[in-house]
Amino acid sequence: MGKLNVVLDWFANTNHTGFLLAEKRGYFAEAGLEVHIDGEVHGVMDLHGTDFVLGPQISMLDCMSRGVELTGVAVLTQRSDSGIVSLKESGITSPRHLEGKRLTHWAPRWFHGVIGEAVRLDGGDYGKVELVPMDVGDIVATLGTVADATWVYANWENEELIAAGKEINFINLADVDPLFDFCAPAVAATHQVLRDRPAEVRAFLAALDRGYQEAARDPEGAVLAVKDGLPAVSEAMLVRSQRHLAPLLLDQRGHWGAIRPERWERMADWLVANGYYDRRRPTEYTNDFLPV
């Protein structure tokens, strides 16, 4: 069997149900693959000695600018599910309302560029936002205490807050401007595996397509089938989270993974124009390894 290693962008959660299903249902094995999936990755994105790595498009481009040889080969959702979450009592209902509020942030310079642009487009001043440097591990304990808002994926942190009985506001950044509907999370492959093992890459992505089609078709059954590989939260939260994601997983053909060029190109061009990415590359992304 061909052996492939995958590093997730975070701990396994409902964004990754398709991976866990492909393993549990034997889709990888049927394709002649032995796939090792690792998570709990934080900090600056890198290959970590693996064949595939997950993360937002912006982190992938940052890797490329540092000489890391990878190419985006799939995107997890057909519309970005990331944005700014806050407690309802904070009154933050649009990016400009972050003025005078405490926003958590992490290290990359592009973080401030992207969120600053969202605030600017909404008529606000990012310079008036109080920045709190931290990697948020416990969203419930963070909001309303050390910070007022943070950038999250709606499928997980929002559901954690709701499960804790919190009333929240959520600003999906893709609603602010199409620029922010970039590819996140996405799947990248090393140039080596694409060059030397293209048939295995195609088989791997085809198995994921099967897994995510199941997650879209039967979100409750899918997530409960792999709950042992997910954090120890209530089944109700897992089901809510997977149902939230289900409409976002597949394209109009009913398949998973396709990177729409406009999603990638808008953000990549903006990053270059604003000095957050050095130059465009012809190998940034491809749909050539996805099922036809």
TrEMBL record:
The protein's name in its UniProt record: Thiamine pyrimidine synthase
Keyword Cell wall biogenesis/degradation: no
Upper taxonomic lineage: Bacteria, Bacillati, Bacillota, Clostridia, Eubacteriales
Family classification: Belongs to the NMT1/THI5 family.
InterPro entries named in the record: NMT1/THI5, SsuA/THI5
Described purpose of this protein according to its UniProt entry: Responsible for the formation of the pyrimidine heterocycle in the thiamine biosynthesis pathway. Catalyzes the formation of hydroxymethylpyrimidine phosphate (HMP-P) from histidine and pyridoxal phosphate (PLP). The protein uses PLP and the active site histidine to form HMP-P, generating an inactive enzyme. The enzyme can only undergo a single turnover, which suggests it is a suicide enzyme.
Molecular function, one GO term: metal ion binding
Subunit structure: Homodimer.
Reactions it catalyzes: N(6)-(pyridoxal phosphate)-L-lysyl-[4-amino-5-hydroxymethyl-2-methylpyrimidine phosphate synthase] + L-histidyl-[4-amino-5-hydroxymethyl-2-methylpyrimidine phosphate synthase] + 2 Fe(3+) + 4 H2O = L-lysyl-[4-amino-5-hydroxymethyl-2-methylpyrimidine phosphate synthase] + (2S)-2-amino-5-hydroxy-4-oxopentanoyl-[4-amino-5-hydroxymethyl-2-methylpyrimidine phosphate synthase] + 4-amino-2-methyl-5-(phosphooxymethyl)pyrimidine + 3-oxopropanoate + 2 Fe(2+) + 2 H(+)
SsuA/THI5-like domain ranges (all copies): 13-222
Pathway: Cofactor biosynthesis; thiamine diphosphate biosynthesis
GO biological process terms, semicolon-separated: thiamine biosynthetic process
Keywords: Iron, Metal-binding, Pyridoxal phosphate, Thiamine biosynthesis, Transferase
Pfam families on file: NMT1
